From TrEMBL, chain A:
Subcellular location: Cell inner membrane
Protein name: Oligopeptide transport system ATP-binding protein
A GO term, aspect molecular function: ATP binding
CDD domains: ABC_NikE_OppD_transporters (cd03257)
Cellular component GO terms, alphabetical: plasma membrane
Keywords: ATP-binding, Cell membrane, Membrane, Nucleotide-binding, Transport
Membrane topology according to the record: Peripheral membrane protein
UniProtKB/TrEMBL annotation, chain B:
Cited PROSITE patterns: ABC_TRANSPORTER_1, ABC_TRANSPORTER_2
Organism taxonomic ancestry: Bacteria, Pseudomonadati, Pseudomonadota, Alphaproteobacteria, Hyphomicrobiales
Protein name per Swiss-Prot or TrEMBL: Oligopeptide transport system ATP-binding protein
Single GO cellular component term: plasma membrane
Membrane topology category: Peripheral membrane protein
């Protein structure tokens, strides 16, 4: 078996102090292999974005604090690396794509310059060569008329083209891992399909691993090989995409699957929602965070927090109940 | 469904915004045709879904119906009365029966008002609040109606989650017993697990109060679930209207087909066996839309005529209308001929 590009072990991240202390990520472990697409799904407040930011140590400390855990990237623990070492990895061996292409591009600089920057910085290419590469990269992300576009500014790009430029920038230094945090949430559905298949094709070509952070179960089903489902800062279930959808074993995953309306099926009379409200991270129960909303809850769930246990194959879940599906 | 008993009838609605140029001498140099000749009806207790991508004019259509943006041309009939030119004052009594739920439950509720006062505000404005006891009782009734607890009237919006806030917005909208509620992306800001709760609430209220909805959204799965009929918009025009299951089973317009193919299904096995025909390009700017059929530069089936003439919305089957030259019966011969030539 091949060695994973990234292994996260028991990661915990907290914000604030005293009574306002919030554990945004709690005991999270996962791994990604080369060429694999791992989706981290969850709702707002589930900790998926903080997890993504933590991987590149982009969580501001303070107010954030890494409490425990290891982030092993090609065997090296990023939590122990020096700031200089992390800077050599960011945008070079690990690249990140954010949700809002307009706010993550510098409006005052040309697109070409921004794509060339990591090449000049990490690849030590002279600027002229870096610009040539930038033009090639824009062509690779299928931006028409790249030779002219390379000298234009982000505001002259449409939303989809900006996200293509972000992908070009991410790919510039041939990273082994790309983290995409809700890369298409701001885009229309026809453009979303174009951007995600482009991202998928390009990572396949370079055998890079892709971590896709999303709340969209449709996107996960179409593009992910493996899935981690997060709830209230913890991974509650993980496994292959096929397994998770065909055979969900955690009540939360089960509830999510049942609550979404389907595009490809005649409408049912009523949807089956997950009852109750999303958890308050500042006042989590002692036991399982999903217990107040869970149909399968037992006494044990109130007192004890379940940990991720092996279910067979590559399927893991954190639940005491015997969930029949 | 629609027809004689329609609550809302929109005929050839146009909303054009002028584009000005020049610093000292401002001249109108063009116009943004946000809504360009849209016609539809909403029947009693019916939900009409209005779908399309950003910039297609779906929200502007909603605002024009509420008379919250000036309309350029066309006629809007609400409960049989032409409201397209009513003054603000004459419009006011009608607003009791024509209400709105917005997308953002954080931005649409005044953070300084208690929930009870927020829900009671429409009653006060329209002078139907009655005495203190009646007013309180009505607020409690409304809170219960939308699945909140009566004692929550004393709390402020920040104490509620997004889903609960949207329930408060819905209670405000139904406080005056409206006939039609315009819902502009009412669940797209909510988490998946909460979306289903709010969608179910919309449907329950429709059954209990006989409401009609104009449901504006971009999520095709949500729209399929809540709507009886669906209209698809592209760049200011309606390209296809059909009863919901027909639209999803047998979409006719190439844009509708592309839109449905682009939306991923929450089912990996179905996704793997599905053909992913991508629509190329992005929606063009409304300032300078393509000639003829606005969709022709992105359309995989485009013919020479598509660049020259805009197709009319014509009936293709009962209740199913499409604006596409491919489905224009008078052009069937030409298409057959070009097929033979190719």
């Amino acid at each position: 078996m091949q060695r994973p590009v990234l292994e996260v072990r028991n990661l915990a991240v907290e914000f604030g102090a005293g009574a306002g202390r919030v554990r945004a990520v709690d005991d999270v472990s996962f791994e990604v292999n080369p060429g694999e697409t791992l989706a981290i799904v969850g709702e707002s407040g589930s900790g998926k974005s903080v997890t993504a930011l933590s991987l590149l140590r982009l969580v501001p400390t303070p107010p954030g604090r890494f409490c425990s855990g290891e982030i092993l990237f090609e065997g090296e623990d990023l939590l122990k690396a020096s700031d200089a070492a992390i800077r050599c990895i960011r945008g070079n061996r690990i690249a990140m794509i954010f949700q809002e292409p307009m706010s993550s591009l510098n409006p005052a600089l040309t697109v070409g310059l921004q794509i060339a920057e990591p090449l000049q910085l990490h690849g030590r290419l002279p600027w002229a060569r870096a610009f040539d590469k930038a033009r090639e990269l824009l062509t690779r992300v299928r931006i028409p008329d790249a030779a002219r576009r390379v000298n234009t500014h982000p505001h002259q790009f449409s939303g989809g083209m900006r996200q293509r430029a972000m992908i070009a920038m991410a790919l510039a230094c041939k990273p082994n891992l790309i983290i995409a945090d809700e890369p298409t949430t701001a885009l229309d559905v026809t453009v979303q399909a174009q951007i995600l298949s482009l991202l998928k094709d390009l990572t396949k070509e370079t055998n890079a691993a892709l971590i896709l952070i999303t709340h969209d179960l449709g996107v996960v089903a179409r593009y992910a090989d493996r899935v981690c489902v997060m709830y209230a800062g913890r991974v509650v279930e993980s496994g292959s995409a096929q397994d998770i959808y065909a055979n969900p074993r955690h009540p939360y995953t089960l509830g999510l699957m049942a609550s979404i309306p389907r595009l490809d099926q005649d409408a049912v009379d009523r949807l089956t929602p997950i009852e109750g409200q999303p958890p308050d991270l500042a006042a989590l129960p002692k036991g399982c965070a999903f217990e107040p909303r869970c149909r399968y809850a037992m006494d044990r769930c109130r007192d004890e927090r379940p940990t991720l246990e092996h279910e067979g194959g590559r399927h893991y879940r954190a639940c005491f109940a015997n969930v029949a599906c | 469904m629609a027809g004689a008993d329609s609550v809302l009838r929109v005929r050839d609605l146009k909303v054009h915004f002028p584009v000005h140029d020049g610093v000292l001498i401002r001249r109108q140099t063009g116009s943004v045709k946000a809504v360009d000749g849209v016609s539809f009806e909403v029947g009693r207790s019916e939900t009409l879904g209005l779908v399309g991508e950003s910039g297609c004019g779906k929200s502007t259509t909603g605002l024009a119906i509420l008379r919250m943006t000036p309309l350029t041309e066309g006629r809007i009939e609400f409960e049989g009365q032409d409201i397209s030119h009513l003054s603000v004052r004459r419009m006011r009594p009608l607003r009791k029966r024509l209400q709105m739920v917005y997308q953002d439950p954080y931005g649409s509720l005044n953070p300084r008002m208690k929930v009870g006062d927020l829900i009671g505000e429409p009653l006060v404005i329209h002078g139907v609040a009655g005495d203190q006891d009646a007013y309180r009782a009505r607020i409690q009734e409304l809170l219960r109606l939308v699945g909140l607890r009566p004692e929550m009237a004393e709390r402020y919006p920040h104490e509620f989650s997004g889903g609960q806030r949207q329930r408060i917005s819905i209670a405000r909208a139904v406080a005056l017993n409206p006939t039609l509620v315009l819902c502009d992306e009412p669940v797209s800001a909510l988490d998946v697990s909460i979306q289903a709760q709010v969608i179910n609430l919309f449907q329950e209220l429709q059954e209990r109060l006989g409401l009609s909805y104009l449901f504006i959204a971009h999520d095709l799965a949500v729209v399929r679930h809540v709507s009886h009929r669906i209209a698809v918009m592209y760049l200011g025009r309606i390209v296809e209207v059909a009863p919901r299951d027909l639209l999803y089973r047998a979409p006719l317009h190439p844009y509708t087909r592309g839109l449905l193919a682009a939306a991923p299904l929450p089912d990996p096995s179905a996704e793997r066996s599905r053909a992913h025909e991508e629509i190329v390009g992005e929606p063009p700017s409304v300032v300078n839309p393509p000639s003829g059929c606005h969709f022709h530069p992105r359309c995989p089936m485009a013919m020479p005529v598509c660049a020259q003439r805009a197709p009319e919305l014509t009936a293709a089957a009962t209740g199913h209308a499409v604006a596409c030259h491919l489905h224009d019966p008078s052009r069937a011969l030409d298409i057959a001929a070009s097929g033979l030539a190719a």
